[in-house]
Design a protein that fits this description.
- One of its GO terms (biological process) is retrograde vesicle-mediated transport, Golgi to endoplasmic reticulum.
- The chain is an alpha+beta fold.
- It is built from 8 helices and 5 strands; from the N terminus they run ββαβββααααααα.
- It has 2 domains: 105 residues, Beta-Lactamase; 42 residues.
- It has a 5-stranded antiparallel β-sheet.
- The longest helix has 18 residues.
- It starts with 14 loop residues before the first strand and ends with a helix.
């Protein structure tokens, strides 16, 4: 291994994966060409799930990659980096992703809730991992719903609703909603008469 390959880099994350308790892909985002085809990606995901789903540790070395992972109810979260990557840095990314999803899903981090809030997951990953602003860019570059949804294993209807939201509001984030007006005025809340 030459000295150049151990130089510090901002590109620490090679992939972010979320699998269900059967090892099926719910979300996968690869940031390099280590596994260029969907077939290779799914084989890697099956291998990683088989090696990690029955262990209590949080770090594994697999196929020359450092894998940090966490499970919760019926979900397995993985962040993958190169074999010489700092495990603490990868674990920070994993914890940030999990904590963000926990906040968005109101501490209900499970398969059903995640599938109902995929746009939040896309946004969280895009914000946490540099180079992640590409999901919506795929649509803008001319790819159709089917070509976007298949590699991610997400229903076309979900992709369609995300794109619709982007077109209508200019963002994929959840916007504040109107609700019942407050009973107390600002002045009453501050304790002034």
């Amino acid at each position: 291994m030459d000295a150049l390959s151990l130089e510090p880099t901002l590109y620490t994350v090679k992939a972010v994966l979320i699998l269900d308790n059967d090892g099926e892909r719910l979300y996968a985002k690869y940031y390099d060409e280590t596994y260029p085809t969907v077939k290779e990606q799914k084989a890697f995901e099956k291998n990683i799930f088989n090696k990690t789903h029955r262990t209590d540790s949080e770090i594994a070395l697999l196929e020359g990659l450092t894998v940090v992972y966490k499970s919760n109810i019926d979900l397995y979260f993985y962040v993958i980096g190169s074999s010489h990557e700092n495990e603490l840095m990868l674990m920070s990314v994993l914890n940030c992703l999990f904590d963000s999803l926990s906040q968005m899903l109101r501490k209900n981090v499970e398969r059903r809730a995640l599938l109902e809030n995929m746009e939040g997951l896309f946004l969280a990953v895009d914000e946490i991992v540099d180079g992640g602003d590409k999901d919506v860019e795929k649509y803008r570059s001319g790819l159709g719903y089917k070509k976007i949804s298949e590699p991610l294993n997400i229903p076309r209807s979900t992709i369609k609703s995300i794109i619709k939201k982007l077109k209508e509001y200019g963002t994929t984030t959840n916007l504040p909603r109107e609700g019942r007006p407050p009973k107390l005025t600002d002045q009453a809340r501050q304790g002034e008469d």
